[in-house]
TrEMBL record:
Belongs to the glutaredoxin family. Keywords: Cytoplasm, Disulfide bond, Electron transport, Redox-active center, Transport. This is Glutaredoxin. PROSITE patterns: GLUTAREDOXIN_1, GLUTAREDOXIN_2. NCBIfam families: GRX_bact. One of its GO terms (biological process) is cell redox homeostasis. One of its GO terms (molecular function) is glutathione disulfide oxidoreductase activity. Has a glutathione-disulfide oxidoreductase activity in the presence of NADPH and glutathione reductase. Reduces low molecular weight disulfides and proteins. One of its GO terms (cellular component) is cytoplasm. CDD domains: GRX_GRXb_1_3_like. Residues 4-63 form the Glutaredoxin domain. It comes from Devosia sediminis. InterPro entries: GLR_AS (IPR011767), Glutaredoxin (IPR002109), Glutaredoxin_subgr (IPR014025), GRX_bact (IPR011900), Thioredoxin-like_sf (IPR036249).
Amino acid sequence: MAKVEIYTTPTCPYCHAAKALLSDKGVDYTEITVLDPDLREKMTQRAHGRRTVPQIFVGDTHVGGYDDMAALDRQGGLDPLLAR
């Protein structure tokens, strides 16, 4: 299974939804809380300028935020990406 990283903040409802979707699929993920400005800057660079949370990465692929991941899942594209 691919390595999954999710950048979050503690009070973000979309972050909680993203983590719940991944957990429902049985996916282990690494959560990176971006309250530290240096971590947020790293996330922003990695996410091609996107500063909002969550930002989700599956392997080397930037999936985007929760809405992006949920749409990818509805289209049947998330499971194959996770299986890499």
